[in-house]
Amino acid sequence: MRLRSTTGPATAGFDRDTHTGPTDVVAPGSVDPLVVAAYASDTPYVVAARAIRSSILQSYTESDRGSRACALIGIDCDEALAVLAANLGVVMAQAGSQTVIVDANRTHPRIASLFQLADHAEHQVTAIPGLLVSGTGADTPGGSEPVEQRSLIEQHDAIATSASQLIAATVVNATNGATSIADALTGFDTAVIVIRKHFTKRNVVRGLIEVLDQHGIPITGTVLV
To answer: pTM for the whole thing?
Structure first.
């Protein structure tokens, strides 16, 4: 797993801060083993997650807002996206940021279950200090207002303003295109595109980048999984 800049050489590197690993022992079974950042600090995956964290934090511009919002946008990698979002949320929380992960994959939510929580419930406390997980509600026929009609920041306004870091994970698919995703990400500070190595087509990535640019959403880089 690595991050590539969309505008130049990759800037992701090793974190030099003092909060690089778990500060509390997580009870076995309270977090899925795939969320390796909850149990270890020196594996290659966790080092890569911390490097992505650094790139995201460095990309933020000066703002009067007390909270920040970053989107992880996956193409062809639903499962890997969920695991990355979970681990990134953990390393953000370990660095002292009050963090909430929003699983915007309404069709196949996965993040909450990685923390042994209900998939569609909102604002759930995890076993990781400072980390919450929230769903977007069940995607059922004839349901309430679609996620695309309101930005994710508006939907999670109370928790987004109380937390210092909001991470939203969403996927590009047949029913959730690039334009719908960009509309839902209105007000986000940055986005990271997550693609399946040697599988995702370049024209799909280029199309997503163009739409995000049109909506004024900065892109930190692209992660290959």
So the answer is: 0.85
